[in-house]
Amino acid sequence: MPDNMLDEFAPIFYPKSHAVIGASSDPRKFGGRVLQVLLAFGYSGRLYPVNPQESEVQGMKTYASVKDLPEAVDFASIAVPAPVVPGVVAECLERGVKAVQVLSAGFREAGEEGARLEKALAETAAKGIRIVGPNCFGVYSPDGGITILPGATLPKESGPVGFISQSGGYAIRVPRRAEGFGIRFSKVVSYGNACDINECDLLEYFYQDPQTKIITGYIEGVRDGPRFFKLLQEVCRTKPVILWKGGLTEGGARAVQSHTASMGGQEQIWDAVFRQSGAIRVTGLEELLDTVLAFLHLEPQTGRRVCPVGGGGGIGVAASDSCERMGLEVPVFPVELQQKLMSIVPAAGASARNPVDVGNPGPPPPLLRAAMETVAVEADIDIIIVDEIDMTMMARPGDSTAQSSGPISERAQVPVDVRNKFGKSVVVVMPVEAIGTDVLESEGARRRVCDYYLEQGIPVYLTLERAARALVNFTGYHRHNRVLSS
Amino acid sequence: MPDNMLDEFAPIFYPKSHAVIGASSDPRKFGGRVLQVLLAFGYSGRLYPVNPQESEVQGMKTYASVKDLPEAVDFASIAVPAPVVPGVVAECLERGVKAVQVLSAGFREAGEEGARLEKALAETAAKGIRIVGPNCFGVYSPDGGITILPGATLPKESGPVGFISQSGGYAIRVPRRAEGFGIRFSKVVSYGNACDINECDLLEYFYQDPQTKIITGYIEGVRDGPRFFKLLQEVCRTKPVILWKGGLTEGGARAVQSHTASMGGQEQIWDAVFRQSGAIRVTGLEELLDTVLAFLHLEPQTGRRVCPVGGGGGIGVAASDSCERMGLEVPVFPVELQQKLMSIVPAAGASARNPVDVGNPGPPPPLLRAAMETVAVEADIDIIIVDEIDMTMMARPGDSTAQSSGPISERAQVPVDVRNKFGKSVVVVMPVEAIGTDVLESEGARRRVCDYYLEQGIPVYLTLERAARALVNFTGYHRHNRVLSS
Predict the structure, then answer these.
(1) Quick one: which of A433, A443, A437 has its CA closest to B448?
(2) CA–CA distance from B46 to each of A340, B19, B154 (Å)?
(3) A361 contacts on B by Cβ (under 8 Å)
(4) What ipTM is given for this predicted complex?
(5) Which of residues 185-244 of A touch B (CB under 8 A)?
(6) Segment B440-446 long-range contacts (CB within 8 Å, at least 24 positions apart)
(7) What are the tens digits of pLDDT across the range B318-335?
(8) Closest residue to A248, CB basis, from B321, B361, B437
(9) Cα–chain-centroid distance for residue A463?
């Protein structure tokens, strides 16, 4: 392993030239799709389709074989049937191709014959060519102009999040789902069976990559447990690593076997890995993205004392339940502070012990502002959670309390102002109120406000449970590192 | 307690005449809002605003006092300051009003003086008038033409679900959030401090109410534990009772104290109540609605053997993990069945051990159909879970696999056909792919398909975790009842 992974992997993530081996003129065919997706994504390097049967595919001149390529390309996508792949990769090595991604399946995961083919690939890799895959969707690297197999419409802008995925499906689903949350990626790698480049190599790459600030991963199993653990410990000291480990239940482990044929590993071992390395464990796609949002937008902190601010007493009860169940603290406010808050929120039935109940889900903006400012300045808490306050409501006839200014209502502006003015961490919970097509307009209004908060660097969550879990993950990482450094 | 709660509570849920005491001409004021909401909802009985200062409010003739009402009305909404309420309710009793809802707050939850006022209310109730509240949002009963305080836009059609809520906030949030899932209510009651009508009375009412098939509740504490438990046991034998108990954490219990001042109760006691009564415990609004969907649409069953059908191997791993963590079983299929399924799904990398991986999230409809039919007929499972298959994709140029027929794609039709043809329980998981405003159109497409599934009686869930939890809740109820009857 070279000291500098950045140089080693540059041909993969920033290929100046790219061959598509098995490129077809029919975009419904596998090799045709690979080429089509690269073209649609707008790859701007030198692109060479390789196809022995056709002289032109999708408007491009083809090359009959790897040997005929006009240059030793940085990278090649291989989309030919599995039995042919080892020969093609050997040719690539010979032609001076620096790295390949084998998108074809039918290797170790498919039985003995496939395992034999994969072994041949690994042997070729050892001779001096790097291989991503086989049985994968490849690499998405927006700044390198390349995208994974079905990722033609993924964002062209890059961001600070790296994603290592043993699953092709999640390699596409995670960045796609993340898009609406304003989360952008430096690189996503679907590494499949990992005959050469594996989770450790990628973890090391992202560790060194200055573009990547937050490392995420979906992992089913690791090849070299001790190396992975040691690396994880080191990486976590400077960059958070958010890992979704699949296959920890009996059925999940069975599914892993037929998916990437890696060893799932026992839950107890993984428990220890997470506890001792400081890596952040998540159990699903939603939790992964929710946790990323916290790391993206909140200042590093270890405090778990929160103040949920909501409208309606039952909401305060549920907020306390949710926060404490997840591991946050909802400290009772001193009597003086309670009294001060109650003078701001005079509604009978409201409460200010913490959570703070502002009386109803649509409070007048000045009231919400005064309550939040008082909490920000005087309460001994770390994070304010604005819980299910209706931020989408615009001015209605006869309703003087909901004046809008531009597309963002005065009420929706309050959390942003409080965060800016006092530097207090603020997160917002905004549920999807309904799923019917009839209310798509109100969903549009909700999303506009969400987008605004995300632009402003305020994490938005769909439920308080999800917010609380993300905050526990986030503060847990910083706690672990503080203990290490103390 | 009369044998027939239906007659006793008819004036509350189906009032032929209704007085609004404290009705104001200003809809921003409390009493003005109560009247406005009733008018907007379209109450069609005889409506009498009571206001001593004005002769007309919101275009209606007013009455100076309760004594002046032209008839002994069935029901009255009371929206006057707390100190005045006991006198007003006493007048109502005298005038022959059968029941009232006290929407005003400022009673037991507000301290000693409020407790004294509430005691006076309870004493009046004992003399022959039923009281909902105080400190509540009142009653929503679409067939009776009445709605809770901020519920002018709730659906006018009724349905089979009853909801008992100690929280006013949830009394509005639950039916509003439920609307998009096609869930409709027989009645929703926000009963607040329960000075007279309490959770037991309402449970008994819903038990007797032929319109209510599924009983749901948000409860912070109960007054008469033994009665509640005994009743719950009895009710659960014929109607499912889905309860969200708020305030089970320390912070939650504290919030309960300042919300409705009821005793939260210890978690262990509630554990036993749920275990022994067969009531279904949920911990939040989402789980409550998810569970209702299962009861609404699935045939009673106790089997927990599921077959997740998804596209992409990683998704199969996550599906197994999620299902087994929640308590479902994902049994391995016999080798013959695996082979048969693999002949249908020839993609390398796909798996048919269970979960069944159809290769990619957008499988050709005939392939999905053949795989699901084979599972429905030959697999020894109870429920098929269609997991994150893209149902919204319409025909694209050059894509022969996604032919649409009308607004519902051929692929989206498959789960409906399989359920209809084989009577096998099918549920569908369709996540919100993104939250940005830019993809609102695709969210619209998703919702159209969701609406279609719900119309067709197929429950739709946002995540597999939520589907699995709802199915465990649903099958757990029927298991409990089967054990009792065996």
Answers:
(1) A437
(2) 45, 8, 21
(3) 169, 173
(4) 0.75
(5) 218, 220
(6) B440/A440, B440/A443, B440/A444, B440/A447, B442/B392, B443/A440, B443/A443, B444/A437, B444/A440, B445/B392, B445/B394, B446/B391, B446/B392
(7) 888 889 999 999 999 999
(8) B321
(9) 18
